[in-house]
Automatic annotation (TrEMBL), chain A:
InterPro entries listed in its UniProt record: MetI-like (IPR000515), MetI-like_sf (IPR035906), UgpAE/MalFG_permease (IPR050809)
Gene Ontology cellular component annotations, sorted alphabetically: plasma membrane
Keyword Membrane found: yes
SUPFAM superfamilies for the chain: MetI-like
Membrane topology, record value: Multi-pass membrane protein
UniProt cross-references to CDD domains, sorted A to Z: TM_PBP2
Superkingdom assignment: Bacteria
Transmembrane parts of this sequence: 28-48, 92-113, 134-155, 175-201, 222-244, 280-301
Protein name: Putative aldouronate transport system permease protein
Domain ABC transmembrane type-1: 88-303
Family to which this protein belongs: Belongs to the binding-protein-dependent transport system permease family.
UniProt keyword terms in alphabetical order: Cell membrane, Membrane, Transmembrane, Transmembrane helix, Transport
Localisation: Cell membrane
Organism this protein belongs to: Cohnella lupini
UniProtKB/TrEMBL annotation, chain B:
Main location: membrane
Pfam families hit by this protein: BPD_transp_1
SUPFAM superfamilies: MetI-like (SSF161098)
Protein name, entry field: Carbohydrate ABC transporter membrane protein 2 (CUT1 family)
Amino acid sequence: MELATKSTTRKSSPRLEVKFRRIWKFKLLYVLLLPAFAWVFIFDYLPLYGVSIAFMDYNVIQGFPGSSWAGLKHFNMLFESDMFLNAFKNTLIISLYKMISGFICPILLALALNEIRTVWFKKTLQTAVYLPRFVSWVVYGGIITILLSPETGIINKFIEFFGGKPAYLLVEPNYFRAILVVTDAMKEMGWAAIIYIAAIAGLNPEVYEAAIVDGATRFKRIIHVTLPGITSTIVVIFILRVGYVMSAGLDQVINLYNPMVFEVGDILDTYIYRVGIEQFNLSLAAAADVIKGVIGLLLVLTANHIAKRINPDSGIF
Amino acid sequence: MKLTGGEKAFVTTNYIVLTLLTLIIVLPFWYVISVSITPYHIFSEKDGMVLFPTSFSFEYYEYLLQKGSLIYGSYGNTIRNTAGGVLLALFLTATVAYALAEKKLPGRKIFILYFVFTMLFKGGLIPTYITIKQLGLLNTNYVLILVMAFSAFNMIIMKSFFEGIPESLRESASIDGASEFRILWRIILPLSMPVIASVGLLYMVVYWNDFFNALLYVTDWSKAPVQLVLRSIISSSSLPPELLEAAGRTPPPTIGIQMSAIVIVALPMLIIYPLIQKYFDQGMMVGSVKG
């Protein structure tokens, strides 16, 4: 018996030793890996276990031990709930609108900025349009709420000045989605343009010189040189945005919406928050989380797959 | 270079459109600042049209920032969370990014998958909430520092930066007898300042601006960050009783309080980002495009 073990160790030890030596050589790097590894385990992987409450009747006071399995009960309830279906529909609609505006505006902005030759002016514009990205939606939503307020809001003063009738725009279901889309574009387009500005800066100047020699006007140069040059970036960004359709902008909506516009403005994230945290129906909300997460995962994977087919270097993983 | 007539029109239109767009984006901020330093009687005389302050008053700020007021205390919480959070986040992100930038590291692919998976699928709001609750972190002073301390996306930005540092640099240093830790501290770290500054800024903005995690995990006003206090100042047409109680005297008109509170909360980030802007123009975007 002893002999047998000895012989096996002797046989495999060189290979093991090589492997161990290879690992030992990088010991410092493994130590460096450890803190983030632990963090991700606690804050990203432990919650995956918490997903199980979507399939339970979760007892808030007693926790997991006091909860019984409920199967797909909560999923069935969701699909019969008008509130949930409404939030689901709104999420898709608002995301789609935002995708169009939030996708086109930054490209146009980057192209326009690229045509500004006065360096200080360009820098000033850039700094100014990045600005809203650095405030929270509490701040930006607050500013919007104040500007649109029926009594003191300056927007209404302008509407009155031009002979219109003042209105409390934030409680009007007809305007709410438009407000979401416009304010989202105003806040994010500057920052979103950076990636295109970087892509344009990386284009080969010789191509431009050749185009000038050929007599291409500025506008023609944009259409025939700049735009084709950044197409791969545009495609990647577009497809990645498709992957995040299930998140329609929690921070924005929760700071702007109110019961008057739930019908057009309630999204999955705000629904989950209200049902789970405010009404303490944790299992039902968790089931909505699961639906959102699974569809989101499928979309991201599909989007990434397509991005890689178009350009093998692109995609985030 | 001579411009043709059509090109001139094109360039001029471009200047005008961009200037208008910039004004639309900046003016709301300007207006809020302007109102916050205008005395209320002038504000109502002009019916709210105070694009340029003609006389100044800081009564709103004095009221909001007096010692013991809710905003004063919560401001301290936000500063503590942001300072502690950015340090922790940079530590967690830089260490793992440096390790994974080493292409020969055994098991590298599996580790990368482990981290990137978190970008694909998250447990979601409720399961995360339950986990935080079971860990006993709910309503503690450090919960907000902990929950935002790592983003796989930022890790990828840093990793691609580290991958761009030529290996010969480290090799020559190790031939000179420098220990691995010393190489990291003395050579890699100073070289990485652009990416540390830009990723640090991204984290700083996240920590400073967070209100939703606070809404979930902090119920005690004395532990609340300033964004949460601002939210209650804005969403209620009358000021929250907690705020009034702490202040102890009749408050100035709500609109002015709201606007100056917005300025107080937003200003630090608006001052800091232009200072760091040059770094994210340089280093960061290279990484985020390639992934």
